[in-house]
Amino acid sequence: MTAKTTNAKTTHLGHKFDPTETNWAALTFPADPYGLTSKFRTEFRATVNRCRGSDAKFQQLVDNLEVLTAWAKAKLEADKQANAQSAEMAATRAAQEVQREAFRARIQAGPSIRVFATATGFVETSRRDGSILAVYDTADDEQGPVASMAQMMIAEGRSPTSTLEIDAFGRPGVGSGQTLANLAGGAVCEEAPAASGGLQGIKV
After folding, report:
1. pTM score > 0.90 for this model?
2. CA 181, CA 160: separation in Å to the nearest integer?
3. In a 10 Å sphere around its CB, with 0-12 CB exposed, 13-18 middle and 19+ buried, how is residue 26 labelled?
4. What is the pLDDT of residue 117?
């Protein structure tokens, strides 16, 4: 008896198989390292056996397979796009975290922090060269702009014992000379200068 020879290959994995084989036990399938197809093959075999040589039943199976294959291809492409977007978002978050870590390292250097008031909040400047380090929009904060800014700074990782120097339009502002912890709690040091107009344009 001459053994059957394999004369076909699957499209993507190149698995050899005999397309004329009817004996289920004699079939070989591509390796399934993900465990995706075992249950599917069992259900498919049961469905085909129910056709019992009926062209009408078999055509119903084929038509359903066409719909399922089309859906599977569309779902695959949609998942690819979603995966690419997720990877891009993850890369963006990682880059932002690197920037935040660099910012945290920079802002924790030195016990004194210098800011000046604007119409909507405060701008932090470098004590070394005067460059802008951070901007705080606190105009709409009901807790008060100075306390709100101090709370933001502490949340960023600033030392609560850091001393804040506030330049309010050329004058020492309310809270200048106090620690962030005191300002975040709403405390006002009696010695702190509170020149009139020191926080003009800032909602207090």
Report:
1. no
2. 5
3. exposed
4. 87
